[in-house]
Amino acid sequence: MSLAFGHNNPYPSRRSATYARRGMVAASQPLASQAGRDMLAQGGNAIDAAIATAAVLTVVEPTGNGIGGDAFALVWLANDNGGRGKLHGLNASGHAPSRLTPEAVRAAGHDEMPLHGWTPVTVPGIPAAWAELSQQYGKLDFATLLAPAIRIAREGFPVSPVISQLWQRAEAEFRANSDDPALAPWCDAFAPDGHAPAPGELYRNEAQARTLEALAESRCESFYRGELAAKIDAFSQATGGYLRADDLAAYRPEWVAPISVNYRGYDVWEIPPNGQGMVALMALRLMEGFDPSVRDDPQLVHRQLEAMKLAYTDGHYHITQSEHMRVSVESLLSDDYAATRRRLIKETAIDPEPGQPQAGGTVYLATADDAGNMVSYIQSNYHGFGSGVVVPDTGISLQNRGHGFSLDPGHVNVLAPGKRTFHTIIPGFLTHGDTPLGPFGVMGGFMQPQGHLQVVMNLVDYGLNPQAALDAPRWQWMGGRKIGIEPGYPLHLVRDMAARGHQITMAVDSTAYGRGQIILRDPANGVYCGGTEPRTDSSIAVL
Question: Is 424 a catalytic residue?
């Protein structure tokens, strides 16, 4: 089946797909997508647009990302590899500080990695990702790319409705812990008037504007080996943190070879471990062994759920930083292993166990330019605002990615100094043979590979265009036999899943079901077709 570039959206209450020829930026905030579009208009490429968009998102969507988070990217360079084009992967996830050990965590009174405070803070990778992408593949001056974010942080912006809702939830959580010296600056930075901003209320962050200026002037060196690094180090030492200047100075992002599986003739690409993109690929391998049927067939939905449960169970058991894995990527994605796991999918719900193959708070954006370059990019503070640690007078909110580490010495993802943890954020990309089709992604913690599976099947199996693929109602596996269903999901499917033994929870809103973007390039004429997430304040800007 061919991908659809012009089909009508079968969900008439949602928006139509967007088309453009010279360039496109899809992001979760209008100001961010507009900043990326402006870079294209100034002669920049898709990489420049991605950096500018990402920088603005740290300002206008602090509920999901910030300067102190991590990032991953898949970059299609149209004229790379002898002019045939090539896909590149960037892993800009940070490692655990050298002073953060299981013994230190237990000595601080924790039996598991906490969610807030200094303990789950790992070295941030976002500034390094911006600098590396710009240096390797950008066209515009680096300071030009950060100028929109600096201006918006300084002049202020009206907070969008969904972000206001998430901000208010976070304020209640962090204000209750404001007596902790490490967490007290959060309220100063993000609730300066004593409350989280309401929809349409103007919010300014002068401290973040100054930090972004320092990053622009130093190409982000200040964050890792300069004045900003010194401020992070000083606050960490003063408030009981583990992160130090030498941890920051030692950090470098890593270019990696993307991994893929072929799903019904289309190659689906993800970042290799330590990311969880393999979960989506393993689930697709399982589903490829079944006839696609029709989209709302009860047996198909049941098989999707069971495939995702099996893939996720394997992912949590086997995936960590690649050099610490006990089994290979190839073995987890092999035909034999997929067949073995597929045989476990019966007519009723199961409680999955990990298999044994042969040993061996996020924002997502997509950009494309008139030369055919495309970027799939994602960055995150992990859980909402992250750890709640905000470095005073900088606007830097630090991630809590270390929450994903285990303190069990026998676990593959056990905490170790200098180690990268299992990572939830995953950019995706589609190709057909040597032909690039485009970037896609669905952010939202452990919803991400589940969103990838559902979106890819919507595109490939059911011929939905990018907007329709995102509009379609989603399910979410929540552990064991528990399944979450978002509003609008067909009731006959819900009843069938319950009859098969799935324990159904109907969501009251859709904020936990992922927020995605898709841009596909029509190989016949080079026209881009884009979709943007209806579950948040998303926007597509075109050139």
Answer: no
